[in-house]
Amino acid sequence: MTSARPERVAAVIGDPVRHSRSPAIHNAAFAAAGIDWAFTAFEVPAGGGEAALDAMRVLQLAGLSVTMPLKAEVAEAADTRDDEVEVLGAANCVVPMDDGRLRAANTDAAGFVSALRADAGIDPDGLRVALLGAGGAARAVAWGLASEGAADVAVINRTPAGAHAAAAVADAAARSGKPGRVGTTDDIAAADLVVNATSIGMGADSSVPCEPRLLQPGQVAVDLVYEPLETAWLAALRRRGVEAHNGLSMLAYQAAAAFELWTGIGAPVDVMRQAAGSI
User: Is 192 exposed, middle or buried (0-12, 13-18, 19+ CB in 10 A)?
Assistant: First the structure.
C-alpha cells in the first residue's frame, strides 16, 4: 500500500499562485522519476519572503520555487547565493544544503536558453537580439543570452534607465536599444530573435509589446507570456509568417533545472513539458 504521506514536500511561493502550473509540472516529474515527493503552492504576499524561508527550515521542505513578488526578497534572505542571483538580484529557486543553509538559485536564464534551443532549434551564439522589457525576466534572458555568446542584446524599454539597468547585467553583450520603425534597420527589424519579456498580452490583455509589422519572416519571436498560450502578438506574427513561440517551454525547462538541483537526478523534461501544456 502506498503511504498517504509523501517522503518529501516542495512548493512554490508567491502572490498570486492559485493558478500556478508548477504543482502539475513537478508532481508529474516526481511520479515519472519514481520518487515519493509532493509539490504544492503556498500564497505568500510581498514582505513574506524571509518568513517563508524560516518556515522552509522548520518544515524541512525539500525545495522552493519562487515567483513574483518574492524573488528579490528571497535572494536577499538566503544564506548563500549563486552567481546568477548575485548579478540579477533575484532568485526563483531555493535549495536546502546538507549543512542546513539555504541556497538561492536562478534557473530562469538556463530555462530560457534550453527552451530556445528546443523550440526554435537555434543557439544563442552570435545572435542579434531585441529584448522587450527590463524587469526580472528580461534581466534573466539578457544574462542567459550573453552567457551563451549572443553578439548583441538590445534592451528596449519604456524608460531608458530601466533599459540601461537590464543591459548592465550582460556586460558588453547588451545595450539600450531602439524599437525601430517600419522600413528601417533599427533594433527590432535587425534582430535575429525578438523576445517579449513584459507582461503585455497576459490574460485578457489584447495589446502588443511592439508592432507586429516590424518583424518579417526569417526572424524568430518568443513571448514569455503563456497565459494565454497564444497572445494577440503571437497570433499576428504567425499570420505574417514569423516563427513565434510562447513561454511555456521556458516554464518547463526552468522547472526541470530546479528539479535537478533539489533531487540530484536528471529531470524528465518531456513529461514536464507535457504537464505544463496539459492544464
Answer: middle
Report the candidate in 275, 255, 261, 250 with the shortest Cα–Cα distance to residue 116. Answer: 250
- Which residues neighbour 80 within 8 Å (Cβ) at sequence distance 6 or greater? 97, 101, 102, 103, 104
Retrieve residue 128's grid coordinates.
542579434
pLDDT tens for each residue of 187-245: 999 999 999 999 999 998 999 999 999 999 999 999 999 999 999 999 999 999 999 99
Known catalytic membership, residue 71 = yes
Q: Which amino acid is at 250?
A: M
In whole angstroms, what is the distance from residue 127 CA to residue 52 CA? 39
Question: Over the stretch 48-98, which tens digit does the pLDDT of each residue have?
Answer: 999 999 999 999 999 999 999 999 999 999 999 999 999 999 999 999 999
Local structure of 95: helix, strand or coil = strand
Q: List C-alpha distances in Å: 272 to 26, 33, 105, 217, 253.
A: 7, 11, 20, 30, 8
Bridge partners (DSSP) of residue 193 are 129, 220
Q: Which helix (H) or strand (E) holds 55?
A: helix 49-59
Measured CA angle at 103 (ends 99, 106), to 5 deg: 160
Q: Of the listed 71, 81, 245, 273, which one is catalytic?
A: 71
Element (H, E) at 63: strand 63-66
Q: pLDDT band at 183, cuts 50/70/90?
A: very low
Interatomic CA distance for residues 215 and 27, integer angstroms: 38
pLDDT confidence tier of residue 1, bands split at 50, 70 and 90: very low
